Amino acid sequence: MSHAPFSARSALAPGSAAPAPVAVSRREADGSVPPRTALVTGASSGIGAAVARRLAAEGRWHLVLTGRDADRLEQVAPPGRTALFPADLARRGAEQELVDFALDRAGGLDVLVAGAGVGWAGDFTAMPGPAIEELVDVDLLATLRLVRSAVPHMVAAGSGRVVLIGSLAGSVGVRGEAVYSAVKAALGPFADALRYELRGTGVGVTHVVPGVVDTPFFEHRGVPYHRSRPRPMPPERVAEAVRDAVLRGKDEVYVPGWLRLPVRVRGAAPGLYRRLAGVFG
């Protein structure tokens, strides 16, 4: 594989000042347009890894991939123009180091796919305090900090797209996943508000809302997926939706599309929805 592995020692020292965003002329010496750059988090498995593979298959993307498991990240990273940044984005300052690394390697940042996340399943009253804090830190706060670090560079360049990987649990709430539902619910309004702020800058925001995806997520959360419906879909289906949303500039995407139906029922008839969810959810 042709990777550009990253050593944490070459990152910015903690507490050091980050360079101000500047507009970059994205052209090679011969005048040609260089590959676009996509920064993908959570790329060591699941949806993030599938997104990386899908973009790499096109042959016109420079990928910057990050995940907490350095060995796994190396194993799943596609060949080609791929730079790796193993990191725990819950650590304060890691998000700025990652953005600076991407800018240094690629000269710009066209797309950010924020897919890193953890889960926990069980009764809320039995959820350990550290598990609550980790879930909020990884799934929400780390994402907000990363977007905050990346967006100014996109605005300065006059183009870019932020893709936030949400969950149906954040749209309707899921039994046994109270905290996960809460943090994913925050991403939808955040995407809307940020989109309003960035209007006219050339930077777009996409909220991708997948249903059940066949990834190691359920193993890591401690409880396997046991429902017969909806059936888990392959992460490649979500990756295709992410690619399509980036190319078409879509604001919100449900995967599969029929998942909009329960969300609309909940909005139009919340009482009916809650009665049905109490029986089937």
TrEMBL record:
Gene3D superfamilies reported for this sequence: NAD(P)-binding Rossmann-like Domain (3.40.50.720)
SUPFAM superfamilies, A to Z: NAD(P)-binding Rossmann-fold domains (SSF51735)
Biased composition (Low complexity): 7-24
Domain Ketoreductase as annotated: residue spans: 36-216
Pfam family, one: adh_short
Start and end residues of each stretch annotated as Disordered: 1-35
InterPro entries in alphabetical order: KR_dom, NAD(P)-bd_dom_sf, SDR_fam
Alphabetical UniProt keywords: Oxidoreductase
Source species, domain of life: Bacteria
Keyword S-adenosyl-L-methionine belongs to the record: no
Keyword check for Oxidoreductase: yes
Classification via PANTHER family: DEHYDROGENASE/REDUCTASE SDR FAMILY MEMBER 7B, DEHYDROGENASE_REDUCTASE SDR FAMILY MEMBER 7B
Sequence similarity: Belongs to the short-chain dehydrogenases/reductases (SDR) family.
Name of the protein this chain belongs to: SDR family NAD(P)-dependent oxidoreductase
Upper lineage: Bacteria, Bacillati, Actinomycetota, Actinomycetes, Kitasatosporales
